[in-house]
């Protein structure tokens, strides 16, 4: 078999959908498949999707070398155990062991946000950086932290809970049970909720941003979001000293309306040092799935070939 | 020469004093010497101290293998350059190159707080942990961050500026030029200043803690300090997921008056995950100097022998 016929499978398991793909070891995506995440028996549905992807590969004469699966929550990447994932209603799920017992190829299990961070480094906005932070901002907020080229995973696989850092003492309540968390103010979910609470209609982040300058409620809610996010990025910079901060997720689509005031706020928050660069993600919602394929390449022993992916993009 | 005659030199350069020692490669401290840090020509005074330590070693028939020097500020440990150290009035000082040109043995230059963190892991309160945070709290506050056994150094050698993370939006001014920094409230300097500002006398942290329960100003200022520090440790835990947080410096001498309410505050701040252990430093003000000797052991190729130090302690 020619190595150009070798492929890896990748699935990004989210609370709403499971995004899968078949990717050649040279970095070409040949099949994608997205399925809804069921309320129960998620592992069964995940195995179905992986088997579907493997069958799609087989019909094309492609040989599956490995699979990479990424999930949200607290993930112990060494044992492949998901300690806790509220979106999936999982607690202590030995995902890697379960998948290994059901599938015939090597498998890697990782954390969605950390894997997305790897993808942004390999192919996206953090290319070339050894010290960066990747912050996807959607309904909620998370972060992947990379220092000296290595992902910071922590004692329990629970690093980067940036959305829940307490930034406003005695602030508004968060779904997590605390008050004043960053994502209460600075997330798609937070901005939409606070816009309605202040008397506005139910609008998306995009729609609220479109009202800036003409709608005082939009100005106020967005101003709070930018101010709190700048405070969070200041904290991140002072603790971790990244040279680049990549903002992802739907929220980052706001572009200049977000990035311009955010850069000013971050620079003002750093009295005695320069601010790191703050840029928008290049891979967007594909970053998690691409990250899963990177993990699959690593578990298959094809890490060296990832250099080709960087060139191809 | 017997390897038991081999020693390393260690100096912890602080804003007030330079603490030096001669330490055998087996981990025994045979000489210590502390000198005031001069206002100018600090490198000259540092070289004098190292030469004095080397002479003390020579009179005992001991052979100097290397020296380790740690300093505060932003330190690029690869090049041995101190990018900025306000206490020493240094900017872009090529310390390693200067010391190498003046001294005949291998030299390592490191960051005082990160080196102290290494010492706490080897010999102190973080023994056995691969994911910990060491936070010396004195006049100001800093932090050494270790993940998967590796010190997080960042893009500019400027990680761990925990004392300056903004925790109270629009809070009291800090010497750094910002407002609402953690150390404005939760440090030896901050507590003493706020106690006076609230109408109290000029007292030390120790004296203020002794007034708890009988002096409402002490209760208020200390309560603020604990609350802000708990908020900071919550942020640290959510971002970095350590399994142990080691508190050092004079402030941590408060013992239970600090640790008991702090542990409660941290647990309350972490809605969905367990808190890491919070403990007091075991090495205290010696941690930086011991860390410098660890760096000296590494540069001399004696890293394997550090295992003996752990046993000896």
UniProtKB/TrEMBL annotation, chains A, B:
Q: Which GO terms describe its molecular function?
A: glucokinase activity
State the organism named in the record. Glaciibacter psychrotolerans
Annotated family: Belongs to the ROK (NagC/XylR) family.
Q: Which UniProt keywords apply?
A: Kinase, Transferase
Kindly give the InterPro entries that the UniProt entry links to this protein. ATPase_NBD, ROK
E.C. no: 2.7.1.2
Q: Which Pfam families match?
A: ROK (PF00480)
Which EC class is this protein assigned?
A: transferase
Q: Does the keyword Amino-acid biosynthesis apply?
A: no
Give the superkingdom in one word: Bacteria
Q: Under what name is this protein listed?
A: Glucokinase
Regions that span the bilayer: none
């Amino acid at each position: 078999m020619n190595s150009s016929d070798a492929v890896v499978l990748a699935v990004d398991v989210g609370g709403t959908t499971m995004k899968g793909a078949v990717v050649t070891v040279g970095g070409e995506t040949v099949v994608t498949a997205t399925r809804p995440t069921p309320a129960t028996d998620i592992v069964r549905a995940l195995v179905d999707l992986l088997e579907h992807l493997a069958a799609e590969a087989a019909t094309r004469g492609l040989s599956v070398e490995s699979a990479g699966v990424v999930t949200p929550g607290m993930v112990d990447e060494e044992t492949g155990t998901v300690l806790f994932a509220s979106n999936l209603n999982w607690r202590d799920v030995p995902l890697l062991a379960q998948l290994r017992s059901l599938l015939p190829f090597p498998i890697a299990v990782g954390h969605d946000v950390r894997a997305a961070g790897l993808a942004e480094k390999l192919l996206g906005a953090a290319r070339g950086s050894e010290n960066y932070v990747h912050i996807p901002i959607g309904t909620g907020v998370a972060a992947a932290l990379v220092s000296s080229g290595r992902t910071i995973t922590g004692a329990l696989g629970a690093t980067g809970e940036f959305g829940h850092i307490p930034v406003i003492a005695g602030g508004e309540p968060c779904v997590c049970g605390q008050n004043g968390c960053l994502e209460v103010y600075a997330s798609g979910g937070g901005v939409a909720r606070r816009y309605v609470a202040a008397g506005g209609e139910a609008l998306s982040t995009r729609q609220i941003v479109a009202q800036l300058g003409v709608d005082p409620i939009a100005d106020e809610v967005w101003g709070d979001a930018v101010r709190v996010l700048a405070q969070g990025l200041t904290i991140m910079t002072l603790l971790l000293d990244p040279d680049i901060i990549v903002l992802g997720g739907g929220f980052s689509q706001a572009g200049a309306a977000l990035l311009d005031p955010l850069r000013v706020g971050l620079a003002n928050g750093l009295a005695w040092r320069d601010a790191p660069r703050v840029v928008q993600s290049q891979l967007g919602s594909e970053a998690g799935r691409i990250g899963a394929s990177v993990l699959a390449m690593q578990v298959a022993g094809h890490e060296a070939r990832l250099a080709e992916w960087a060139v191809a993009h």
